[in-house]
Amino acid sequence: MTSHTEDYESLLTTAIEGARMAGHHALDMMDTTQASIKNNSEMVTEADRQCQTLILERIQLDYPDHGFIGEEGDHGRLFKRPPADPDGIWWVIDPIDGTNNYAHGLPQFSVSIGAMQHGRPIMGAIYDPCTDHMYTATAQGTPQDNGAPMTVSHESLNLYSSVGIDCHFGDTIPPWVHNVMTCTRFRNLGTTALHLAYVANGGFAGMALFTPKLWDLVAGCLIAEKAGAVISDYQGTPLWPLDPSTYEGTAIPSIICNPVAHRELLAMIHGT
Question: In the chain, which residues fall in CATH 3.40.190.80?
Fold first, then answer.
């Protein structure tokens, strides 16, 4: 069982190395990779699969008995392998977060690698290979951007604050989304992981997500939470604990904001 600071740091070292390897490989393939559609809804590229393999191989060198959940499995499904120990660690991996951007040659994507134990994130690393920024945190450490400490902003929802809004609304767009769009400088960069990193470093006041998957959230939520963000579902209920062993790819609607913006966004969602 991982319980000491040095253990978390060892996990983080492995994640950083895997994220850099995958990010550099993605950049190398950006102009030549082939894209296709999976599940009639999402793009996937050759690079996504290759980057996930690189990450898995790197992690398994250090932690062969750990479990894995990755976005890219067979036939459009997630990849899943339980840990040898029922109380063991799960690695949760998005090899290219922002595949649609990546497939269209837009330099706005990231590699997200998180780890969970007992249903909660314990480590996260998000790498932006286009800017060479590495955003990291452990359950017992300070969130960092290339080694510099990060903290959320104290901005309210106003005409000058940036708020991320997921582009996947479902069948209808809730009325409160229009309110967010008209009262803030709303943003969608096409990569959830970087949105969450920008909440952590104060660039975004918050983020509203409609259909994120576990691999979109684990690393970024830990980084944002350690930087002072409040993380919940749309009712204000905490997201964790969540059992990776039973997770099969369902959406996890979430809001991740600094404390001021979180209160305001919840009130806006519920019309209070």
Answer: 162-270
Q: Three-class SS of residue 223?
A: helix
Q: Distance between CA atoms of 139 and 9, rounded to whole angstroms?
A: 10
Domain 5-145 fold: Fructose-1,6-Bisphosphatase; Chain A, domain 1 (3.30.540)
Compare 46 and 256 and report the one with higher pLDDT: 256
| 75: pLDDT strictly greater than 70 | no
Percent of the chain with pLDDT over 90: 84
Q: Per the omega criterion (within 30 degrees of 0), is the bond before 86 cis?
A: no
d(CA 259, CA 262): 5
Q: Model-level pTM?
A: 0.93
Retrieve residue 88's tokens. 């063991």
Per-residue tokens: 213: 């998957």
Query: What is the rounded CA–CA span in Å between residue 52 and residue 71?
Result: 8
Which pair of structure tokens corresponds to residue 69? 């959940």
| Integer angstrom CA distances of residue 247 from 75, 186, 252 | 17, 31, 11
Average pLDDT over residues 244-256: 95
Tokens representing residue 256 in the block: 């991740």
**Tally of residues, the chain:** 272
